[in-house]
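Our consortium's second objective concerns turning raw sequence data into structural hypotheses that experimental partners can test. To show how far this objective has progressed, the report includes one record in full. It was chosen at random from the queue rather than selected for favorable results. The single chain below, 400 residues long, was entered without modification.
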Amino acid sequence: MTMPQVSTAGMDVGQRRLAARHLLTSPILTVSRNPAELELVRRHAPALKSMFATQLGYALVVESTFARLVKAPLPASAPVRAARRGTGDVPFTARTYVLLALACAALLAPGVGEQILISSLVDQVRADAAEQSVTVTDGIGDRRQLVAALKLLAAWGVVTETDGTLTGWGERPGDEALLSINRALLIHLLPSPLHQYGTAEETWSRLVAEPPRRRLRQRLVESPAVFRAELPDDELDVLSRERTELARHLDENFGLVLEVRAEGALAYDPATGGGLTDVDFPGSGSAKQAALLLLDELSATAAQPDAAVVIGGRAVPALLVPWARVGTVLGKLASRHRAAWKGEYAESPDMLRTEVVELLSALRLAQPADGGLAVFPFAARYQPQVTTRPAARQTEGDKQ
């Protein structure tokens, strides 16, 4: 008896889409930290390399122990995704980024092998820094920032704590730690060799001008929302003429749904719990609940959106809410949900406002402007679905 042939084409497409989503969420996958995801990427490597290169202009490097998706620079209007220190709450400062760059350079210094003592690495960092007139002291502040930079490299799989810990050295400089180096991955951290650039500013520019279709796809894949006002004419033309094809590409390759509105375009992940973004919204956690309820309150009591609010030198449609109004609403929400939200919010309204505004800005749902908070029309698609939980069960949700 001959068994009927079963097509696996649909299954293959679904698996490639899942692999592409893994790479967009985590552009560095390693066999030690992401074995299942890396295996999926390796299985579909040829198709993924072709898709990322032709559709987005991204290079995909796939080796036996890691995969690295090298993205193209985004425009200045794109939301900022700062690296964060271990707890996830404190973004890197400019100095932490400097120490991160110095640490990478020190790991690539001549004579450095597959392993290095942290004391030797720090000596090299300080020597390199001195050549650039940068002082790296032995003070607790510099040590902690250097540890934050090295922990990020560890999270990426570039270094591994083989003996001793980075935290131990950061708190007690007399302690020692042995780090193993993934040199094959280390050389792929930068999108292109630095010798191609004459100045530091040039590293943020594109070496070759991308076609408008590719630029628009990059924006929609990487940014939660895009305003028409920030799109050049050629990208606006693509959005207008090729909307159906653009929506098909985003759905087929990444599982994103495209909404084109009068104010711009929104590409969102309809999957339950998201998964394609580093900021799950709506989601658990006090700040996310506060942000969702704030949007609902402001939308319910506001008149029509202002014709335009100037953001980053561009006039975009938005509702401009005075800061006093934002503070009043958040204060009432903090009092109403005192038992379930972070205890610090009731005592520190400024902390609550800062965290909520940072979250909404990262999602491009709102942004600080002259005179208040500019709430964008994209926020209208979110409806509050907040459940109040006992304070004792809120601990994990607050670890965002």
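The partners drew two points from this record. The first helix runs from residue 9 to 25. The chain has four domains: 9-70, 94-186, 215-268, 286-398. Both points have been shared with the crystallography group to help prioritize constructs.
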